[in-house]
Amino acid sequence: MSTCPACSAPLQGDWKFCLSCGAPLPQAAPAAIRPDTADAGRTINLLAVIAFALGVIGGPIAAIFGHIAVRQIRTSGERGLVLARVAIVLGYVWLVVWIAAIAWIISFSVR
User: Fold this and answer.
1) How far is residue 28's CA from residue 32's CA, in Å, rounded to a whole number?
2) Burial of 110: CB neighbours in 10 Å, binned 0-12, 13-18, 19+
3) Average of per-residue pLDDT across 94-100
4) What is the average per-residue pLDDT within 84-88?
5) What is the C-alpha separation between 97 and 83, in angstroms, rounded?
6) Conformation bin of residue 79: beta by default, left when phi > 0, alpha when psi is -120 to 50
7) pTM, entire model
8) H/E run at residue 72
């Protein structure tokens, strides 16, 4: 049981004011505002960020880095799973683009 900080009267439940002296009582911050939420201590996986950057600039190797980042995130509990998955998709898209470009160049250089 807690006590009033102004008059030391016993308090019950989640009162907003002391019944003895009428002083307002401090309230706990809602869970959405508290800094001790679940993601506060988790860091973002650096390999996921690198994979995403490679996927944005056009590197098919982003898919490989993304797969490695997903494995690391699942074992370590770090953040960045969405970045890693987006990097995987971008890496495969760029791989298809690169293969199509090389096939197009080869097909026109043969003639």
Assistant:
1) 11
2) exposed
3) 96
4) 97
5) 21
6) beta
7) 0.62
8) helix 61-76
